[in-house]
Design brief:
The chain contains 7 helices and no strands. By secondary structure, the protein is an all-alpha fold. The longest helix has about 35 residues.
Length: about 190
């Protein structure tokens, strides 16, 4: 899956300030955008041709929403790549805080579980994964408040990275909500 590889590559590029990998991420952005547009066109075609109802209609509409959320996550991976390129040129001594590294690991774990929940149509896994957003939000707050021992520019970069990761987690929660809605026709929040 192009997208899954994309996000993991962003993590490795970030950790190692890898310029080559960062450039590859940026190059993949157009491919992700094109896939998103293809899915939107296919969904519209399916609705026009087959007039799906009930669960079939929910699944069809959700496919477009899922693709859009994944495209947005790809945009955040590009943000990481752009920052990584800038840092590698201007602050090669930069080391991300351990909290940001932990946050990245949690977001990748959340991504993997979301993909699994979708592929298995697993409502319980979607609910469990949706709840992981609280962990990401807590880490984001800690990064913002963890000012001791950081130069101002380093602190700002850590906060910017954390903000992108928090937004990725929000998109993953949207996907989990869609998984539950597809399968049950109900809002996830009403099932907790």
């Amino acid at each position: 899956m192009v997208f899954h590889h994309y996000k993991l590559t962003a993590s490795v590029a970030f950790e190692n300030l890898d310029r080559s990998m960062s450039k590859k991420i940026l190059d993949l952005d157009d491919e992700i955008d094109n896939i998103n547009r293809e899915i939107e066109n296919l969904v519209l075609d399916i609705i026009a041709r087959f007039n799906p109802l009930g669960k079939d209609l929910r699944y069809t509409i959700a496919a477009m929403k899922l693709a859009n959320n994944l495209e947005r996550i790809g945009d955040h991976a590009c943000n990481f790549a752009e920052k990584t390129l800038w840092i590698s040129e201007n602050l090669p001594e930069f080391k991300p805080s351990n909290l940001v590294k932990q946050m990245f690991g949690e977001v990748i774990n959340m991504l993997q579980k979301t993909v699994l929940a979708f592929s298995r149509r697993d409502i319980e896994l979607a609910k469990e994964t949706w709840k992981m957003d609280d962990i990401i939000d807590d880490l984001d707050k800690k990064v913002t408040n963890d000012v001791e021992g950081f130069e101002p520019h380093t602190l700002v970069l850590n906060v910017l990275f954390a903000r992108d990761l928090e937004r990725v987690a929000d998109h993953l929660t949207n996907i989990c909500e869609e998984i539950v809605f597809i399968e049950t026709g109900k809002e996830l929040k009403n099932l907790l």
